[in-house]
Amino acid sequence: MPYARIAITLPAELLATLDGRAVQLDRSRSRVIVEAIRAYLGAPPIVHEPTTPAYTGGDVARARRDQLERDLARTPAERLRSAEAAARLARHARPRAPRQQIIGFDSYEDFYEWKRRSRA
Question: Between the CA of residue 61 and those of 10, 23, 52, 64, what are the distances in Å?
Fold first, then answer.
């Protein structure tokens, strides 16, 4: 779909309200304006979405924000230890099956060099 760039002049308070709504909806200013024009003209929306995305409000958003604040309050070393503990727990809960690996070499010398390095 081809697009055209336009320039409009808005009252400052209307622009501030528009920007606030765009942040609330997690959308660009242009997208909010296009949706408003479509609604004004009675044109069907191209993509119908809920007014607020599920991940931006409610209990899930509060829990994510609280967890982020707790993580940012930790030192980098504490965050690293926590991540390593979570990785250990994940490996324990769901161990991986042994993997098989096929390695190809261009020559016997390449294989011999790889074998020598892997033993060291």
Answer: 32, 14, 12, 5
Q: How confident is the model at residue 55 (pLDDT cuts 50, 70, 90)?
A: low
Q: Is the pLDDT of residue 81 over 80?
A: yes
Residue spans of the domains in the chain: they are 12-93
8 Å CB contact between 22 and 32: yes
CA 71 – CA 64 distance, rounded (Å): 10
Q: Which pTM does this prediction carry?
A: 0.39
Q: How far is CA 65 from CA 33, 62, 71, 79, 85, in A?
A: 29, 5, 10, 16, 22
With vertex at residue 85, the alpha carbon angle to CA 79 and CA 88, rounded to the nearest 5 degrees, is 145
Three-class SS of residue 112? helix
Give the chain's largest Cα–Cα span.
76
Q: Provide the angle, in degrees to the nearest 10, between the axes of the packed helices 29-41 and 12-25.
A: 100
CB 39 within 8 A of CB 31: no
